Amino acid sequence: MNRRNFIVGLPLALSGCAAQKVWAPDDVVRRAVHRKPGRNYLTLYTMKNVGSGNGAHTALLINASQRVLFDPAGSFKQDLMPERNDVLFGVTPRLENFYVSFHARSTYYVVGQTVDVTPEIAEQAFNIALVSGPVPQANCARVTSRILRQLPGFEGLRQTWSPNRIHDDFAKLRGVTTLEYRENDADDKTLALEEISEILREGQ
Questions:
Q1: How would you list the strands of the sheet with 87-88, edge to edge?
Q2: Residue 47 in 3-state DSSP?
Q3: Buried b (16+ CB within 10 A) or exposed e, 88-123
Q4: Where are the domains of the chain?
Q5: Is 203 left (phi over 0), alpha (psi -120 to 50) or beta?
Q6: Rounded to the nearest 10 degrees, what angle do helices 140-149 and 119-130 cross at?
Q7: 163-170 vs 140-149: helix crossing angle, rounded to 10
Q8: Angstrom distances, CA of residue 26 to CA of 36, 89, 119, 128, 135
């Protein structure tokens, strides 16, 4: 898929799981903050193997007082969304699209499941995510499920190490909408990252 023509407005995705402490300065985070007025929602992202359907990674987009992505031990490296221990700030729809495109390729596709929540629940999810990282390798589903289980209405989700299990439990929530994102790029995320980085440098 041509990333230069990637449709603005699609939700995002996921990555692989390394516990490295990262703490962007206050002024950098302040400049990056992105707010999306209107409804508050959570979007669970699951990267799945095309052949087996096995989940490889879990992430959580939170549209609260600001729009952030909890990407535990994620591998999408860029300079426009400052990070604080696996929470990415400044998640505009355009950057969200690039995040999805980075992960979707010939061997993996991305599932985005969205459910509306109250402003209070969205803010609670945001605050819990802020203190939940950095997340060690292979712990992405465990920590994401732990965050969700602390929210009113999400207590029935299982505590799990499995991205597929969170995906399946999330699908049972009332009002959830689901979208899949597929691309036919080669199975090499470094190539996708190079292309996306060039586009972002050019300011396109």
A1: 83-84, 87-88, 67-70, 55-63, 40-49, 108-117, 177-181
A2: strand
A3: bbbbeeebbbbbbbbbbbeebbbbbbbbebeeebbb
A4: 21-202
A5: left
A6: 140
A7: 30
A8: 21, 11, 24, 19, 21
CB 35 within 8 A of CB 89: no
Specify the pTM. Answer: 0.87
pLDDT in tens, the chain (204 residues): 545 444 333 333 334 434 789 999 999 999 999 999 899 999 999 999 999 999 999 999 999 999 999 999 898 888 899 999 999 999 998 999 899 999 999 999 999 999 999 999 999 999 999 999 999 999 999 999 999 999 999 999 999 999 999 999 999 999 999 999 999 988 887 787 788 888 877 775
Give dist(CA 111, CA 109) in Å, integer. Answer: 7
Written as six digits, the tokens of 103 are 């992960």
Spatial separation of the C-alpha atoms in residues 104 and 184, rounded to whole Å: 8
Judged by DSSP in three states, 58 sits in strand
